[in-house]
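Question (not urgent): is this output format expected?
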Amino acid sequence: MLQKFRNIISNHTKTPHWILTVTGVALTTGLLSCQPQTPGNQVSLSGAGASFPAPLYQTWFNAYNQQNPNIRINYQSIGSGAGVNQYLEGTVDFGATDAPLTEQERQKFRTKYNAEPIQVPLTGGAVVFAYNLEGNVKNLRLSRQAYCGIVQGDIKTWDNPLIAKQNPNVNLPNTPIRFVHRSDGSGTTFLFTNHISKACPNWKAGVGKSISWPTGIGAKGNEGITAQIQQTQGAIGYVEYAYARENNLNMATLENQAGQFVDPSPESAARALEGQTIPQNFALEIPDPPGQQAYPIVGLTWLLLYNQYDNPAKATTLKNFINWALTEGDKYASQLGYIPISNDLAQRVQSTVSEKIAAQ
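Got this back:
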């Protein structure tokens, strides 16, 4: 299966084989397992940012530590917004984000570091509508009109005709809809609103890591949204695919741009990248993929790196880890339900990191 995904996209893209997953319910701060350390050559790295890929990162960092006991990587799943801020301030060794850096953020980096920021994708994934509906309603289908109405606050109960129309054999309750959205600065929110702005003609709240929501209740992180949906009858919210899968949340089948209803899966997410060309700075956005069988809400997720590190061992360790993640790390991504990026894209990432990161 993995090889099949590797051949989906031609030229520079080949599918970032993606979709991420979870090894536990709430992974807010991840520390590597404590392995016996041998004297000398110990390297500690700290990173912070997106909760979207956090489960995969946690697994990678633990596995890498097992193989390299002198290397420890601490990753805090605090959301893309906070991760970008810490990266720009220089308080971490790397950041992580599901939203490519804005021009304003890039300019701030240039001003402070007199260099271009480095953002490289290691994986990507799908954003799903997960829900909690009495009667254990399965296989809910949501048309564009329906899910646009939900996020805009226009559809207020589950038995609304726009929902019932695509679910004729489902006994939908007259339960109030509780839309759950992120309360923190979030790359998942960027991916979600980037799609909603294209799919929903009446959407007025814009696109970003943080927006002013027209309806709903907030929760922090993909972890927080997952928990809020689990605890709330009538809830529906957007969350990274693997959080929903790992926690057995129901996920809606969505109408895509081609008018087809598509289930969220690694395969359908991969199809969203067919024919896409990833730009030189890797900042690919696909707000509304056109493919017949493409899942409609997908995106890459990036590591944010510096051009220079005061400690040469940190620069070397980051390069070595990224090479490992894009080769040996593939198996962990596949096991967890993420899709590893393609060989071609991995080689571009490895070349970029090798060429642009220097040690003082």
